[in-house]
Amino acid sequence: MRDLVAETHVHPRQLILPVFVADGLSEPRPIASLPGIVQHSLDSLVREAERVVTAGLGGIMVFGVPRKEDKDPRGSAAWADDGILNRALAAIRDAVGDDTVIMADTCLDEFTSHGHCGVLDPCGNVDNDETLPLYARMALSQARSGAHVVAPSGMMDGQVALIRDTLDRHGFTSTAIMAYSAKYASGFFGPFRDAVGCSLRGDRRTYQQDPRNSREGLREAELDIAEGADFVMVKPAGYYLDVLTRVAEISPVPVCAYQVSGEYAMIEAAAANGWLERERVIDESITSIVRAGADQVLTYWALEAAQRIGV
Length: 311
Fold this sequence. Notes:
With 311 residues, the chain is an alpha/beta fold. It has helices spanning 2-5, 42-55, 84-96, 128-145, 159-169, 190-195, 215-227, 241-250, 261-272, 278-291, 302-306; strands at 15-22, 29-30, 38-40, 59-65, 101-106, 149-152, 176-183, 231-235, 255-258, 296-298. One of its GO terms (biological process) is protoporphyrinogen IX biosynthetic process.
């Protein structure tokens, strides 16, 4: 009877698996702050993509982790043909083709020596306009490598418009853009920065949004939609459900939410201490994000949850 009258249903096809691939690895390397999650080698990443297909997930989002010596102030390894992220996208596309949606994180923070999401000016601030052409170059390289979706996550003003124009001019009119539109300067990103070996000094409060603001997130989503975004995203998910609901109410395009590394790590840590029912809380957390308005959810539990949710 409960299933008959349930208002919210989550399906595997709504779930997207974020994955990390690190240059130079011959086997997966565990991430201490994300128990159960690894930095993949190219071979293990392909196997993970095949599991995504088998599980019927909606897609796979790939984050590249370059070697420290390949980082520079502009993040040039991000668009290099032989860069780890582009090689990973090509390997997945060769292995699974169009059997799942291949998504690429389009941001410089993993690739810059200073760990910020853009080029720094002489005062150490991110230069929005100087950064935009690099995002366009990165997105184009990802489309050429096999990405179905590019996902600009740096919160630079105008990033969606320039990426859309660049992709279209080079014939990638079918490559979609998932815009990280309402991305907040959150304390819940800590484990992620371990996962990608981020070199960040300082913080990102000058270009990510203030956690105290809701209307700002709505406005950013509206701007990205006007610039041509095919999806908009709210990040983090669980602590910004009010923003997610407001964005979903006005958005003419699908709305995604990212259940971030800190949300994952907290539940895993509490479950490891026996303080909560792990599987029940995982499923409840994902259901709450969909109930709040998300059409898709990026979650590190995607493969596991697909076995239980929406079956």
